[in-house]
C-alpha cells in the first residue's frame, strides 16, 4: 500500500513535526542551560564544589519550568473552544492541531517525568558533594553546616529537600495512575490522583524559594581564581613569588590597600588581584515567572466554569434504550452548543467531586431549547447515575411533560467544549465511522442536518455504523429514518449514504418495525471491507478532500488512520480525525 506524503502530512505529519520541534526545543534548552552553569564565571565556586551535578540539576530544572508552564494550557477547555468557535484560528490545519491538545498535554507530562528523574539524580549527587566538599572559606555558599554532614538531612530537614521528596511521590502517583490499564479498570483512581496537580504546584513554588544554589554577585571586584594578598598573608599563607621579589618588606605583613599594584605583576602574573571577598546571592525563583501565568489562567477558567455551571439543569426526560444505554434530555437557560461538542456532567448525589464528559447527541436550536446526551452504563459512576434516574420508574420510561416530571437528582452541566467533529460540516464530503456507542458525536450532526442542511458546506455524508447486536441500532433508528425521508422529499437522496453493519449474529436479522424498512435495506452482516470502501469513496469523489471522522474501538481507528494516509489513483485526499476527550 503506497503512502501519500501529502495525506501523511495532512493527517499526522504536522503532529509529528510539532513533536519533533518540541523535543528539539527541550534538548536545546537543556544544553544551553548546561553550558551556562558549566562555563559561567558567576558559578565558578559553586561548580568547583558540586561539579557536573550543578549543571545537570539546573539544566533539567529549566526544562521542567517550561513543561510545567505549558502542561496546563491544553486543559483550558474554554480557551480552546473559544479559539475554535470564534474563527480566531482561520486555518483548518491549525484548528486540527487544537484537537491534539491531549497529545500535547501527555507529551509535556512525559517530559516532566523524564527530566524529574534527571533533576532528582543530580540533586542526590549535589547533597553528597555539599557534605564532602564543605568549604570553610565560603561559608554562605555551603548548603551543609559542616564537612561530613549526613546528606539525608539536606533531603528531609530542609524546605527544598522535603518539598522535593513529596513532589516526587505526588508525581509518581499521577504518572502511574495515568496509565491506560488503570484508567480503564478504575477511572476514579486516575481522576482523584490527577487532581493532586494543585498540591504539586504549591509544593513547587515552595521548593524553589529555598535558595540553596547561589551565584557570585561581585565578579568585577573578585574575579574567580584571583589572589587576595590581604587575606592570604593574614592567614600566614605563602604569597606568590612575584610579591616576595617586588615587596620583600610586606611578605609578613598585610599588603597595603592604598598602594597601587605594580604594573609588572599585573601584566606578567598568572592571576589577578582582587579587592574584596566574593559575595554570593540566591537566585530569584524563576519558576514563579514560568508557572504563575498559566496557573492563574487555569484557575480563572476553572472559576469561570464553576460560576457558569453552578445552576442545575432541568431534566425533562430520561429514556432507557436497549443494550444498557440511557438518554437524558435537559434544559438550561442561555445554553448554546454546536454539533459535535461535548459537556461534562456532575451529579453530587453520585459523587461529590467526580464528573465525566459526554458528547451531545442533541443541541439546542432556535426552535427548541432541549439538549441531550446518550450514555453507556459501564462503571460505577454511570451505574449509580442510572439507578438515581430510574429509581421510581421501569425500563420503558416514557417522556413526561415538564409539569409532570419526576423528582430527578440535581445535575450540573459544564460546557460545551470543542471536539474534532465540529469540522465534519466544514468539508464538502465527510466520512463518519462509528463503533457502538461511538455514534453519539454523529447524532448531534444528524439532528442538525434534520433541521436544515443547505446552510452548511457539507454536500455528501457517508455514515458507517458498526454494532455487535441488532438492538443497538434502535438508539438512533428514528433519527436516521426521519433524515432519510426528509432528504428523499427534497430530492437529495444521495446527500447521505447510510451503511449499518452487524458484526456478531447467528443469522439474518432486521430492525423490528415497519417504519425501519429503509434502514433494513442498508443493514449488512459482518464487518466493513475498509479498503474497498475507501477506494469506492475516492472513485466517486475524485480530486476532493474528504474528512474522515472516527469514534470507536482503537482497532477500527488504526485501520482508518492507515487508509487515510494511503495514496490512491483518483487524486482524492483523506484527512483523518478522531474523538479524544481532553
Automatic annotation (TrEMBL):
PROSITE patterns: FAD_FR. Coiled coil: none annotated. Residues 308-423 form the FAD-binding FR-type domain. It is found in: Cell junction, Focal adhesion; Cell membrane; Cytoplasm; Endoplasmic reticulum membrane. Its main location: other. Pfam families: FAD_binding_8 (PF08022), Ferric_reduct (PF01794), NAD_binding_6 (PF08030). This is NADPH oxidase 4. The chain crosses the membrane at residues 20-39, 59-83, 104-125, 154-177, 189-208. One of its GO terms (cellular component) is NADPH oxidase complex. PANTHER family: NADPH OXIDASE, NADPH OXIDASE 4. It catalyses: NADPH + O2 + H(+) = H2O2 + NADP(+); NADPH + 2 O2 = 2 superoxide + NADP(+) + H(+). It is a multi-pass membrane protein. It comes from Rhipidura dahli. One of its GO terms (molecular function) is NAD(P)H oxidase H2O2-forming activity. It is an enzyme of class 1 (oxidoreductase).
Amino acid at each position: 500500500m503506497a503512502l501519500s506524503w501529502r495525506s501523511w502530512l495532512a493527517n499526522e505529519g504536522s503532529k509529528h513535526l510539532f513533536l519533533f520541534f518540541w523535543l528539539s526545543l527541550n534538548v536545546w534548552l537543556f544544553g544551553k542551560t548546561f553550558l551556562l552553569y558549566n562555563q559561567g564565571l558567576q558559578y565558578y565556586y559553586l561548580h568547583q564544589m558540586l561539579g557536573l551535578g550543578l549543571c545537570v540539576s539546573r539544566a533539567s530544572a529549566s526544562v521542567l519550568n517550561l513543561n510545567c508552564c505549558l502542561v496546563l494550557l491544553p486543559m483550558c477547555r474554554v480557551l480552546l473552544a473559544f479559539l475554535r468557535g470564534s474563527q480566531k484560528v482561520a486555518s483548518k490545519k491549525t484548528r486540527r492541531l487544537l484537537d491534539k491538545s491531549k497529545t500535547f498535554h501527555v507529551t509535556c507530562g512525559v517530559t516532566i517525568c523524564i527530566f524529574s528523574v534527571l533533576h532528582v539524580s543530580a540533586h542526590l549527587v549535589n547533597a553528597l558533594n555539599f557534605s564532602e566538599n564543605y568549604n570553610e572559606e565560603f561559608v554562605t555558599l555551603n548548603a551543609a553546616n559542616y564537612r561530613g554532614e549526613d546528606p539525608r538531612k539536606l533531603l528531609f530537614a530542609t524546605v527544598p529537600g522535603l518539598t522535593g521528596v513529596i513532589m516526587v511521590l505526588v508525581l509518581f502517583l499521577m504518572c502511574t495512575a495515568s496509565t491506560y490499564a488503570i484508567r480503564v479498570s478504575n477511572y476514579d483512581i486516575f481522576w482523584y490522583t490527577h487532581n493532586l496537580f494543585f498540591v504539586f504546584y504549591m509544593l513547587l513554588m515552595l521548593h524553589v524559594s529555598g535558595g540553596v544554589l547561589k551565584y557570585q554577585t561581585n565578579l568585577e571586584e573578585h574575579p574567580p581564581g584571583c589572589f587576595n594578598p590581604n587575606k592570604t598573608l593574614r592567614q600566614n599563607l605563602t604569597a606568590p613569588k612575584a610579591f616576595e621579589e617586588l615587596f620583600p618588606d610586606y611578605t609578613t605583613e598585610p599588603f597595603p590597600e592604598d598602594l597601587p599594584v605594580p604594573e609588572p605583576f599585573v601584566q606578567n602574573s598568572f592571576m589577578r588581584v582582587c579587592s574584596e571577598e566574593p559575595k554570593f546571592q540566591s537566585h530569584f525563583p524563576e519558576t514563579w515567572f514560568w508557572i504563575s501565568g498559566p496557573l492563574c489562567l487555569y484557575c480563572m477558567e476553572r472559576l469561570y466554569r464553576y460560576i457558569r455551571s453552578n445552576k442545575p439543569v432541568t431534566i425533562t426526560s430520561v429514556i432507557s434504550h436497549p443494550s444498557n444505554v440511557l438518554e437524558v434530555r435537559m434544559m438550561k437557560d442561555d445554553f448554546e452548543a454546536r454539533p459535535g461538542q461535548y459537556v461534562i456532567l456532575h451529579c453530587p448525589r453520585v459523587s461529590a467531586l467526580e464528573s465525566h464528559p459526554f458528547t451531545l447527541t442533541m443541541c439546542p436550536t432556535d426552535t427548541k431549547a432541549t439538549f441531550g446526551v446518550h450514555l453507556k452504563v459501564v462503571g460505577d459512576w454511570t451505574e449509580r447515575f442510572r439507578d438515581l434516574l430510574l429509581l421510581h420508574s421501569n425500563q420503558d420510561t416514557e417522556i413526561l411533560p415538564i409539569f409532570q416530571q419526576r423528582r430527578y437528582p440535581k445535575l450540573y452541566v459544564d460546557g460545551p467544549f470543542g471536539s474534532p467533529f465540529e469540522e465534519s460540516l466544514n468539508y464538502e464530503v465527510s466520512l463518519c465511522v462509528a463503533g457502538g456507542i461511538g455514534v453519539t458525536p454523529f447524532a448531534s450532526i444528524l439532528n442538525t442536518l434534520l433541521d436544515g442542511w443547505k446552510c452548511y458546506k457539507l454536500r455528501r455524508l457517508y455514515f458507517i455504523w458498526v454494532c455487535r447486536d441488532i438492538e443497538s441500532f434502535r438508539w438512533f433508528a428514528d433519527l436516521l429514518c426521519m433524515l432519510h425521508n426528509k432528504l428523499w422529499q427534497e430530492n437529495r437522496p444521495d446527500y447521505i449514504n447510510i451503511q449499518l453493519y452487524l458484526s456478531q449474529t447467528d443469522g439474518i436479522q432486521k430492525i423490528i418495525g415497519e417504519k425501519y424498512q429503509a434502514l433494513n435495506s442498508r443493514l449488512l452482516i459482518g464487518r466493513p471491507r475498509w479498503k474497498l470502501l475507501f477506494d469506492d469513496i475516492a472513485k466517486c469523489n475524485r480530486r476532493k478532500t474528504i474528512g474522515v471522522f472516527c469514534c470507536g474501538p482503537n482497532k477500527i481507528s488504526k485501520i482508518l488512520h492507515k487508509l487515510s494516509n494511503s495514496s490512491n489513483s483518483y487524486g482524492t485526499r483523506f484527512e483523518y480525525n478522531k474523538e479524544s476527550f481532553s
